[in-house]
Amino acid sequence: MKKKLVVLTGAGISAESGLKTFRDTDGLWEGYNVYDVATPEAWRKNPDLVQDFYNQRRKQVLAAQPNDAHLGLVELEKYYDVQVITQNIDDLHERAGSSNVIHLHGVITRSQSDLNPGLTYPIDGWEIKMGDRCELGSQLRAHVVWFGESVPMIETASEICESADIFVLVGSSLAVYPAAGLINFVPSQSPRYIIDPKIPEVRNRKQVIRIEKTATEGLKELLQLLT
Predict the structure, then answer these.
(1) CB 105 within 8 A of CB 89
(2) Does the reported pTM lie above 0.85?
């Protein structure tokens, strides 16, 4: 029976595919203050701006390609029962071939109902138009968890972390909660590998194996250590 390997990924793994993160630019995301494009208040105030912002981000995601770090996680499935939990809203893990992926903050390649976030739909192409409506008659928006909204998959992710024989953190500064707290659910005896050029501070540091590298270089080293 394969050991359970749980991987939590953040913006650092997608950065090497050319996708930017607001965390690297002092609260700006592609030139916008995140509170102007990533809150329910922003959507109510200027839905056209917010819709266009995510349409442009979706276009970028669809043009991006999975990198060697994404592919390295797929390679690990030969040896482990791998569960990916990602803070990212792109679909690069799925396109790389990962079998089990949970998106904590939604996935930009789907739309959701403005009334019921549980109603989500695939998007044909890169654009959601104003006037595109869900089955309830409400405007469709990006399937993305905004600041101030609940994170519906967090409990499931917590339970998965509790079952980890090995835990890997890739490309996350552990700055966004509640996702940042997931590492604390990992059993104390389970080794934790952290891959990032700047290793964040965590509890139980004795169990942490630090790989101070980018996601692509770090995954190469992790594969050597674990296979």
Answers:
(1) yes
(2) yes
